[in-house]
Amino acid sequence: MVTENLPRKPDIAHVRKETGVIRESPGYRVFRVANAIVLLLVCAVTLYPFVNLVAKAFSSEGYIAAGEVNLLPRGFNLDTFRVVLGDDLFWTNYANTFLYTVVGTVIAMALTATYAYALSKPHLKGRKFFVGIAVFTMFFGGGLIPNYILIANTLGWRNSMWAVVVPGALSVFNLLVMKAFFENFPAELEEAAAIDGLTTYGVFLRIVLPLSKAVLATMTLFYAVGLWNSWFSAFLYMDDKSLFPVTVYLRNLIAAATGTQEIADAGQAAQVASNIQAVTMLLTVLPIICLYPFIQRYFVSGVMLGSVKG
């Protein structure tokens, strides 16, 4: 046929691949610029409070009181760090926070992972019932007074670590995300492991968990940050200062600085100044800031993999 001898129209994708040039439409360029501007604004709004906190931590009280400290320290001052770091109660409460966070995260991950794995099996009898019980707790709670009576009187956990780490040990949101992740797990791997002689617990511990690092790291970060920042449970169920987490120590500093109470621990009779608050807050958030970069690479993938289904 005559049409067979006509020159063929060059393939646009092939030409772009050969030349190495990909032309962007004007609309896409506008989108990229707008997207970059929005992201820069979000970063600025997000980072400003932390940068301002660091600036206040290294500034003199007079400049802070005058409102002259924004992004850079004024009147460089390290005396406040010496005061806070020299307080034995601060280090005791700091160690308590580490202990509560580690123990609470281990308990929470053990409960969440086992519960989610069981719920991910379609053949589980009463599966809908157990899912319903978990979801029910997202909308209805027992109330503050019944919880206090249960934990402080019935269980006898007043002035105990368990009053901090046990009541919130299972997050239903984390449970549902992990359940969805396990539902997408290849069943062939579990079947092959079972044929090789592994029990259900062996499959879970030796096959499923090692291949679920992304979602496990994400849930660990969620639980650890929540426990590290928690203060209300300790404030409610504890009255022994040596058992407080560092967040309650920080809360007492802020309360003292606003004139609601005085702190006389470690020979400090004067009211706590604003830069002492900033120093304590900075020291409190540093461990989480140092930990996050090592887990961040799992963060997005863990949430996305667990939210594809369910």
TrEMBL record:
<dbReference type="GO" id="GO:0005886">
    <property type="term" value="C:plasma membrane"/>
</dbReference>
<keyword id="KW-1003">Cell membrane</keyword>
<keyword id="KW-0813">Transport</keyword>
<keyword id="KW-0812">Transmembrane</keyword>
<protein>
    <submittedName>
        <fullName>Sugar ABC transporter permease</fullName>
    </submittedName>
</protein>
<keyword id="KW-0472">Membrane</keyword>
<dbReference type="GO" id="GO:0055085">
    <property type="term" value="P:transmembrane transport"/>
</dbReference>
<comment type="similarity">
    <text>Belongs to the binding-protein-dependent transport system permease family.</text>
</comment>
<feature type="domain" description="ABC transmembrane type-1">
    <location>
        <begin position="94"/>
        <end position="287"/>
    </location>
</feature>
<feature type="transmembrane region" description="Helical">
    <location>
        <begin position="33"/>
        <end position="51"/>
    </location>
</feature>
<keyword id="KW-1133">Transmembrane helix</keyword>
<feature type="transmembrane region" description="Helical">
    <location>
        <begin position="129"/>
        <end position="149"/>
    </location>
</feature>
<feature type="transmembrane region" description="Helical">
    <location>
        <begin position="161"/>
        <end position="182"/>
    </location>
</feature>
<dbReference type="InterPro" id="IPR000515">
    <property type="entry name" value="MetI-like"/>
</dbReference>
<dbReference type="Pfam" id="PF00528">
    <property type="entry name" value="BPD_transp_1"/>
</dbReference>
<dbReference type="InterPro" id="IPR035906">
    <property type="entry name" value="MetI-like_sf"/>
</dbReference>
<feature type="transmembrane region" description="Helical">
    <location>
        <begin position="98"/>
        <end position="117"/>
    </location>
</feature>
<feature type="transmembrane region" description="Helical">
    <location>
        <begin position="203"/>
        <end position="228"/>
    </location>
</feature>
<feature type="transmembrane region" description="Helical">
    <location>
        <begin position="276"/>
        <end position="295"/>
    </location>
</feature>
